[in-house]
Design brief:
About 20% of the residues lie in helices and about 25% in strands. It has about 100 residues and is α+β, with helices and mostly antiparallel strands. It has one domain. A 3-stranded antiparallel β-sheet has the order 2-1-3, covered by helices on one side. A hairpin with a 4-residue loop joins strand 1 and strand 2.
């Protein structure tokens, strides 16, 4: 008599934070482990282009040290300060082979 082998448990779906950022000449999508890391990546980009807004309409010459403040000051509190640029940062489930995202 042979003992049945236990079935491996199905792994819980993994989550990733998706950062989609666009401007006139570029669109990028990156995955991050959590919202804080995604926001930090976005803030790094913003700090790299800060010179395009520095000194205009009361914008300081240097970006804030806090990532959220940097992003909000650049894109605006409602994300409408930059009409040709924007971003989405959201959590999504990582799906395995054969699974399609609903369109």
């Amino acid at each position: 008599m042979t003992a049945e082998q236990p079935q491996p448990e199905a792994a819980a779906p993994a989550r990733a934070w998706v950062l989609r950022r666009w401007d006139r000449s570029d669109e990028t999508v990156t995955l991050h482990t959590d919202q804080t890391v995604g926001l930090a990546a976005l803030a790094t980009h913003v700090r790299g282009v800060w010179n395009t807004i520095a000194g205009r309409d009361g914008i300081p010459a240097r970006p804030p040290t806090a990532d959220r403040d940097t992003v909000e000051l650049y894109y605006g509190p409602d994300r409408d300060a930059r009409p040709d640029e924007g971003y989405n940062l959201y959590a999504d489930v990582i799906r395995g082979p054969g699974h399609r995202q609903a369109e």
